[in-house]
Amino acid sequence: MTLPTTTDVVLPVSITVHLHLKPSFLEISGQSDNVVDSIHYGHLTKAISALSASYADVTQKVFSLAGEHVDAVRVIVGLPKLILLANDFEVEVITPRGQDSLQQAAKVSVKDLIMPVLIGVNPPERLAKQRVITNITFHERSGMHQADYPAIIKQISEEIENTAYLTLEKFVLHIVRSSCLASDAIEAVTTRSQKPSALSFAHSSGVEMTRYRDAFR
Fold first, then answer.
1. How far from 50 is each of 20, 46, 58, 68, 77, CA to CA, in Å?
2. Alpha carbon of 20 to those of 24, 34, 57, 71, 204: distances in Å?
3. How many C-beta neighbours within 10 Å does residue 185 have?
4. How far apart are CA 202 and CA 192, in angstroms?
5. What's the pLDDT at 9?
């Protein structure tokens, strides 16, 4: 996806970087216990902090600083305020050495999306909406990053608002189907939904489902 670049709104951004180091490098640094045989994470952090929130820029900088010791770089960019009803929004890309990060498949996660839903079979559940907490993971096709996720979540929320369900299975399948068909860039979707008020002595009841876009054609 293309991250927001508007200058009208400043969004907090978190950047997490994982270095997939060569086993030979880890063996040497583990045996020597010497900082000269390790990655200087302080320098790496300062360099990344000076960049934009582009995972492509971050990946390129990490490869240039860490050198030949890195086989791949995993970058997770978080925009916790991008989806107002969600706790977090993350884009994750793993780039092997020598490859273009913009051509890799991205994993996009909408975390702890809270929606009021009329769901359940018990009489009280048919009278009032209850909170359902949903996590949606979008698996993009390689090199395709054109999906507008705020618009997709808005569309799904509007669909849910005027619908009632008896089971979480039906609710989750609705979200998976709508998510898969929302953009040609999306190859598969995993959705997990939980009802925190369903059980007295448990955190929640929940259902998780994964489907590929082809399942709905």
1. 22, 7, 10, 23, 15
2. 12, 20, 17, 6, 35
3. 20
4. 17
5. 65
Note the pTM of the prediction, 2 decimals.
Answer: 0.87
- DSSP state for residue 84 in the 8-state scheme: T
Q: Which amino acid is at 107?
A: K
pLDDT in tens, 123-139: 887 888 999 999 999 99
- Residue 108, both tokens: 């996009």
Q: What sign for the dihedral angle of Cα 87, 91, 94, 98?
A: negative
Residues 45/66, Cβ–Cβ less than 8 Å: no
Instruction: Dump pLDDT digits (tens) for 29-44.
Output: 899 988 888 888 888 8
> Which amino acid is residue 30, in one-letter code?
G
Mutual orientation of helices 168-180 and 149-161 as an angle, nearest 10°? 140
pLDDT (average), residues 143-153:
89
| Strand boundaries in the chain, DSSP class E | 14-21, 70-78, 88-96, 106-119, 130-140, 164-165, 186-195, 205-212
